[in-house]
Each structure stands twice: as structure tokens, then as C-alpha cells.
Specification:
It is globular and about 40 Å long. It is mainly α and about 130 residues long. It is built from 7 helices and no strands. The chain folds into 2 domains: about 45 residues, no CATH class; about 80 residues, Orthogonal Bundle (N-utilizing Substance Protein B Homolog, Chain A), CATH 1.10.940.10. The two termini are about 25 Å apart.
């Protein structure tokens, strides 16, 4: 959904709607699972400015627009969860982000995503901020 929003330049609502119209592989998501996915998309987009500031502060020498689209979206969604979905432990978010990078990006992305998220996680755990 985030990829459709970013690349297709459509509204978040349209990206969500289009996603559910696509035939999905595997078992159908429950209503709770669908709502969680939609919340991740909507929340990530809503809080994009503060999320991007944290990513840019941690990913020194990497501007967001230079990052691979998939890597950027994985980072954004993960940082959204760090900040606004404390019900999911940050270590679990990092593990899931690494799996997404391993599945949908290049091998180098795994180290990059892990490094950026681990840095943000440790800064937040220490009570600091990574805002620019």
C-alpha cells in the first residue's frame, strides 16, 4: 500500500482501496489484520515529517531520496511503529523489517535497514531524540 502511494502518487485512501482489490496469495487477512495494515499505512503517511527527520538523522550521508524506495518505506513504517505503536516491541519491529528487506530488496539493504533502525532504537531507549 505504501509502495502504491509513493510510486503511484495516489491518495492513501486510494492506495488502501486498490490493495484490497488485488487477488492476494495465501489465506485472507482477518478484519483485525486488515485494520492493522491500514493503520500502519495511514499512520506512516500522517506522521511522515517526524518519521523522515529521525531516519535522516540516523542515516548519515544518506538522503531519503537516494535510498531505494522499498528500503525507505520499510524504514518509515518501522519508525512509525517505534513512535506510535508501542504495543509491538521495537526488537520485533526490527526483525520484521529485516525480513521485509531480505524478501523485497537487495542483500545490502538488510544491513542498512538493521543499522538505521538499531540506531534509532538505541537513541530512543536512551531517552534521546534523533530529530534533526
Amino acid at each position: 500500500m505504501l509502495y502504491q502511494w509513493e510510486i503511484g502518487r495516489v491518495s492513501p485512501e486510494e492506495a488502501v482501496s486498490r490493495h484490497w482489490e488485488i487477488d492476494q496469495e495465501g489465506p485472507a487477512l482477518s478484519a483485525t489484520g486488515r485494520r492493522f495494515a491500514e493503520d500502519l499505512v495511514e499512520g506512516t503517511i500522517t506522521h511522515l515529517q517526524s518519521i523522515d527527520a529521525r531516519i535522516e538523522a540516523q542515516a548519515q550521508h544518506w538522503r531519503l531520496e537516494r535510498m531505494a524506495v522499498v528500503d525507505r518505506l520499510i524504514l518509515r513504517m518501522s519508525v512509525y511503529q517505534f513512535l506510535y505503536r508501542p504495543d509491538t516491541p521495537r526488537t520485533v519491529v526490527i526483525d520484521e523489517a529485516i525480513e521485509l528487506a531480505r524478501t523485497f530488496s537487495e542483500q545490502d539493504a538488510v544491513r542498512f535497514v538493521n543499522g538505521v533502525l538499531d540506531g534509532i532504537h538505541h537513541t530512543m531507549a536512551a531517552g534521546g531524540t534523533t530529530d534533526a
